[in-house]
Amino acid sequence: LIGDILELSRAMRMGGRKEEIPLADVVAEVLTGMQSRIKELHATVRIGGDLPRLRVDRFWISQAVYNLLSNALKFTNEGEAPNVEIEPYQPLDREPRMSGLVVRDRGTGVPEELRERIFLLFQRGVGRNIDGTGAGLAIVREIAARHGGRAWMRPRAGGGSDFVLTVSNGSNGDSSHEP
User: Fold this and answer.
1) Looking at residues 23-34, what average pLDDT do you find?
2) How many whole angstroms separate alpha carbon 149 and alpha carbon 173?
3) Predicted local distance difference test score (pLDDT) of residue 73
4) Inter-residue contact 81 to 42 (CB < 8 Å)
């Protein structure tokens, strides 16, 4: 809990050390670090499409990707192995025109009334039977905001959730636009 509070505090103070990097490299590094957990859960993780290059702080964007993937592996339907897809963000109607990714799961989903709340510090959409502090998505949202982007979730057709992370690439969108 204290570690998560410190992580959020650091994210809120993140500096401007940004570089252009392939998001695919970040995702690959995060997945490599999670391989034992993926194998333990018999999870399937698929990367679809060409992930964009982003001008970001590599450490922080890695943390955001890790948090999203960790949740996708954690929040599953009982008795089912996690099935996760990572794809480039393609905006739906009324969503910001920015760059980023979508982490799709076939997990438990999030009730409509909790879709915003789960991004608040210490707010969770599930009971206490799932490990975690409720800080991971708050950290993701702060990282996105510090990069001129947004983080939100939307229900996934057929069950589960799409967790979206966008950043500003300087010329393709208004980060203040609400999804």
Assistant:
1) 97
2) 9
3) 94
4) yes
